[in-house]
Amino acid sequence: MSDASLFILLFGGLFVLRIIAATVIFFYILPRGDRCPNCDHATARLQTGIWNRLVPSLRSSWCTYCGWEGMLRQGPLTEQPNTADKTTGVGG
Predict the structure, then answer these.
(1) What is the distance between the alpha carbons of residues 27 and 5, in angstroms, rounded to a whole number?
(2) Taking a C-beta distance cutoff of 8 angstroms, is the pair 31, 71 a contact?
(3) Could you tell me the fold of the domain covering 32-76?
(4) Which of 41, 48, 31 is closest to 68 using CA atoms?
(5) Of 3, 15, 36, 37, which residue is 20 to 30 A from 73 by alpha carbon distance?
(6) Which of 44, 87, 90 has its CA nearest to residue 69?
(7) Measured between alpha carbons, how far is 14 from 79 in angstroms, rounded to an integer?
(8) Phi, psi (degrees; rounded to nearest 5) at 6
């Protein structure tokens, strides 16, 4: 092999490895669950066509409180208040 092809192979491989390493690191930096990273309120899940099918371990989310929109990893969800548990004050 010539020196030029070894140079291209080596630096091309390092470039690809750098992209893979950055992707893995940024994946683990994303928070888990459905809490907003800005204000810690529960977020709403957005239905994005192809993105959720390509990467099912991520979810598109939107915070209704502060307006943050972004990606979160799958994780524990915040329990929603049950309307049947609320008392109406009638009969007792």
Answers:
(1) 33
(2) no
(3) N-terminal domain of TfIIb (2.20.25)
(4) 41
(5) 15
(6) 44
(7) 45
(8) -65, -40
pLDDT tens sequence across 35-75: 888 888 888 888 877 877 888 888 888 888 898 888 888 77
Q: Give 17's DSSP letter.
A: H
Q: Which two tokens stand for residue 50?
A: 């192809």
d(C-alpha 22, C-alpha 58), whole Å: 16
Task: Write down the mean pLDDT value for the chain.
Answer: 82
* Element at 72 (helix H, strand E): strand 69-73
CB atoms within 10 A of CB 85: 6
Domain borders along the chain are 1-30, 32-76
Check if the beta carbon of residue 41 is closer than 8 Å to that of residue 65: yes
Extract the tokens encoding 47.
Answer: 């239905």
